[in-house]
Amino acid sequence: MVTMIKLGGSLITDKTQEATLRPDVLARIADEIARIHNSHDLRLIVGHGSGSFGHFEAKRHDTIKGVETSEQWAGFASVARVASELNFHVASALGAVDVPVMRFQPSASAIAVNGVVQDMAIQTIIRALDNGLVPLVYGDVAFDSERGGTIISTETIFAYLVSKLSVERILLLGEVDGVYDEQNYIIPHISPDNFSDVQSALGGSEGVDVTGGMLTKVNDMLSLATHPPYPEIHIINGLVSGNIERVLAGEMIGTRISQ
Fold it and tell me: 66-80 burial, b if ≥16 CB within 10 A, otherwise e?
């Protein structure tokens, strides 16, 4: 079974300042991932958002809505470049603590239809997992049969991978303790039974984010949790040291999303 961990763009970058990395946060999380990789028998995939690298550039060119003109295609290529720059930083941080990370560029193989990934190279990711490597994916651009080109979020990429792999759990690391209700309390569990009750409390996101905020994230994750292989999803605070290990140990922190 596979465990997937997403490092939110707002966690590892300052989303209010263009192309601004948070190196101390990234280094600490990389160290935590190294500890769980060494101490748990995990098949692990790591993903990350584009934060203040990709989102500023994507908003500048309005890439998520489609690509048609030569200027828009130049912007499409520019978004891909800055997204890969952040990916290099993340891979370097993981490599520095001996995580056997291998970068997989989604835009090199992904084909989307109206923003949803329909095809992406999977066999090389499976080979990497089979040989004890940690695939690293990220929010990127993709060629799209309806829009010409678009943005694909890490959650969209995870959704495609979940359809092809036996994924047991997904950990989404952000800079909040979980999903808050209207009284500002953490919602411990979200399922189809209570989603309509909590939906009104879910807002947008801080800073520049072209892929939507918490409502989009929870909606996407609930869809994943209610389809095979029915992964359990946890939204937790990545600023708190040890939270990844606590979830893996079975501690109920943050917000759990399940069927």
Answer: bbeeeebeebbebbb
Handedness of CA 234, 178, 159, 152 (dihedral sign): negative
Q: Which residue has the tokens 């092809």?
A: 164
Q: What tens digit of pLDDT does each residue of 86-111 get?
A: 999 999 999 999 999 999 999 999 99
- Per the CB < 8 A criterion, the answer to whether 233 and 256 are in contact is yes
Q: What is the rounded CA–CA span in Å between residue 93 and residue 105?
A: 17
Tell me, what's the pLDDT at 58?
83
Question: From the centroid of its chain, how far is CA 236?
Answer: 13
Answer yes or no: is pLDDT of 139 > 70.
yes
The label of the residue with tokens 């952000």 reads 174
Half-sphere exposure of 164 toward its Cβ, with a 13 Å CA cutoff? Answer: 15
Q: Which two tokens stand for residue 30?
A: 């990389």
Whats the size of the chain, residue-wise?
A: 259
Query: What is the three-state SS of the chain?
Result: CEEEEEECHHHHECCCCCCCECHHHHHHHHHHHHHHHHHCCCEEEEEECCHHHHHHHHHHHCHHHCCCCHHHHHHHHHHHHHHHHHHHHHHHHHHHCCCCEEECCHHHCCEEECCEEEECCCHHHHHHHHCCCEEEEECEEEEECCCEEEEECHHHHHHHHHHHCCEEEEEEEECCCCCECCCCCECCEECCCCHHHHHHHCCCCCCCCCCCCHHHHHHHHHHHHCCCCCCEEEEEECCCCCHHHHHHCCCCCCEEECC
